């Protein structure tokens, strides 16, 4: 059994859902998983107390949440000393469009430069169109983006693009690599 820390940043709630899925998967496999919202300043978390750390953040306007960047920067030494992974949640992860893929890589590169952290594993997770949570202008803009990219344009409901089975397979590989020693434990 491993003890894993999962810190997430979310803007519209989908990354929280992704992080909760990960925590549930880990718990079902007999591991301990502590889920922490990166913006929760009352949470006292010491990554040194965990075998592995997973950070999840979503891309909005080309950047990840400042709360996770701050958490990573603050705990960089502890995160680097144990198995770690970064879950990058974005709509761009749902496409093969070269411009979107290039833009997503640039977002990850900026995050790495900003925090000084080079994750041992990076996994791109497709996000969601949360039309019901958007205000009028954002709903209109997101519908236009979806239309241009061939995505879902029905604004009366939300559309999850996340491949949950793919995310579960990533977790299985991450755990197997951690247990086998392919990822460093602190």
Can you name the CATH architecture of the largest domain? 3-Layer(aba) Sandwich
Write down the overall geometry. globular
Count, helices: 6
Number of domains: 2
* Record field, number of beta strands: 7
Largest sheet: 5 strands, parallel
Average pLDDT, to the nearest integer?
Answer: 91
Strand content: 15-25%
- The N- and C-terminal alpha carbons lie at a distance of 15 Å
SSE arrangement, N to C: EHEEHHEHEEHEH
Percent of residues in helical segments? 40-55%
CATH class of the largest domain: Alpha Beta
Which spans of ≥5 residues are poorly predicted at pLDDT below 50? none
Structural class: alpha/beta
The CATH homologous superfamily name of the largest domain equals: Flavodoxin domain
The CATH topology of the largest domain is given as Rossmann fold
**Rg, nearest Å:** 16 Å
The strand line-up of the biggest sheet is 2-1-3-4-5
Architecture blueprint of SSEs:
Layout: E1 3-8, H1 14-28, E2 32-37, E3 52-58, H2 66-74, H3 76-80, E4 83-90, H4 98-115, E5 121-126, E6 128-129, H5 136-149, E7 159-160, H6 164-180
Parallel strand pairs: 1-2, 1-3, 3-4, 4-5
Antiparallel strand pairs: 6-7
Helix pairs in contact: 1-6
Write up what this structure looks like.
The chain has 186 residues and is an alpha/beta fold. The protein has 2 domains: 3-127 and 162-180, Flavodoxin domain (Rossmann fold), CATH 3.40.50; 129-161, no CATH class. It contains 6 helices and 7 strands. The protein has helices at 14-28, 66-74, 76-80, 98-115, 136-149, 164-180, and strands at residues 3-8, 32-37, 52-58, 83-90, 121-126, 128-129, 159-160. A 5-stranded parallel sheet has the order 2-1-3-4-5, sandwiched between helices. It has a two-stranded antiparallel ribbon with strand order 6-7. Strand 1 (3-8), helix 1 (14-28) and strand 2 (32-37) form a beta-alpha-beta unit. The two termini are 15 Å apart.
